Amino acid sequence: MAVNSPNSPRQKMINLMYLVFIGMLALNVSTEVLDGFELVEESLLRSVKSSSSRNELVFQDLETYHSSNPEKTKNSYEQAEKVKAKSDSLFNYIQDLKVRIVKKADGKEGNPEQLKHPDDLNASFEVMFEHGKNDGRKLKESIDNYRDYVTSLVYDTVKLQIIQSNLSTEPSQKASANKQSWEESMFDKMPVAAAVTLLTKMQNDIRYAEGEVLSDLLRNIDVKDFRVNNIEAKVIPQSQVVMRGGNYTADIVLSAQDTTQRPTIFVNGKFLPEELNGKYVVGAGSTGTFPVNGYIEINSGTGFVLRKEFSTNYFVIEQSATVAPTMMNVLYAGFKNPIEIAVPGVASQNVSATMSNGSLTSSGGGWIAVPSKVGTDAVVTVTAKMGDGRTISINKSFRVVQLPDPTPYIQYADANGNPIRFKKSGRLAKATLLNTNELKAAIDDGLLNIEFSVLKFETITFDQFGNTMRDASDGPRFSQKQKDRIRDLARNKIFLIRGVVARGPDGIEREIGVLEVTVN
Question: Which of 32, 112, 290, 347 is deepest in the core (most CB within 10 A)?
Answer without folding.
Answer: 112
